[in-house]
């Protein structure tokens, strides 16, 4: 396949992905800025242990169970009137759950046990940070 065919395939796939996201619902903005270990928020900042159970309020959030460990990928800087939320991944007890579930959770429900990245990058949040699919 030559370069132009790769580009055409990429455009078709991209269009398909954009089309699928039109059913997403834009939710309330939780923050204007976030802290991440890298510009894609793909590296783990820290590990935290859940202090108390938390039931997710909508599809952006994850349920927390006391005693579970969470990998933290980003930390929102709060908007006035909102709590401090972090983005993380919690892993389940079963092998099928090992892909992890990613979502937001209130930081006051966890205790950071190990910090991997002390130096973080502050950046603006994106519209995609506040969508429910």
TrEMBL record:
<keyword id="KW-0732">Signal</keyword>
<feature type="signal peptide">
    <location>
        <begin position="1"/>
        <end position="24"/>
    </location>
</feature>
<dbReference type="Pfam" id="PF07653">
    <property type="entry name" value="SH3_2"/>
</dbReference>
<dbReference type="GO" id="GO:0001502">
    <property type="term" value="P:cartilage condensation"/>
</dbReference>
<dbReference type="InterPro" id="IPR042801">
    <property type="entry name" value="OTOR"/>
</dbReference>
<keyword id="KW-0728">SH3 domain</keyword>
<protein>
    <recommendedName>
        <fullName>SH3 domain-containing protein</fullName>
    </recommendedName>
</protein>
<dbReference type="InterPro" id="IPR036028">
    <property type="entry name" value="SH3-like_dom_sf"/>
</dbReference>
<dbReference type="InterPro" id="IPR001452">
    <property type="entry name" value="SH3_domain"/>
</dbReference>
<feature type="domain" description="SH3">
    <location>
        <begin position="43"/>
        <end position="115"/>
    </location>
</feature>
């Amino acid at each position: 396949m030559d370069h132009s065919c790769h580009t055409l395939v990429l455009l078709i796939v991209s269009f398909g992905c954009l089309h699928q996201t039109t059913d997403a619902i834009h939710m309330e903005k939780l923050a204007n800025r976030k802290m991440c270990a890298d510009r894609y928020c793909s590296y783990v900042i820290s590990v935290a242990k859940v202090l108390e159970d938390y039931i997710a309020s909508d599809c952006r959030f994850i349920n927390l169970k006391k005693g579970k460990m969470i990998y933290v990928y980003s930390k929102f800087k709060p908007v006035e009137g909102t709590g401090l939320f972090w983005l993380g991944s919690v892993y389940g007890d079963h092998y099928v759950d090992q892909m992890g579930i990613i979502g937001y959770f209130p930081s006051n429900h966890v205790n950071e046990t190990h910090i991997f990245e002390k130096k973080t990058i502050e950046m603006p949040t994106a519209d995609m940070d506040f969508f429910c699919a």
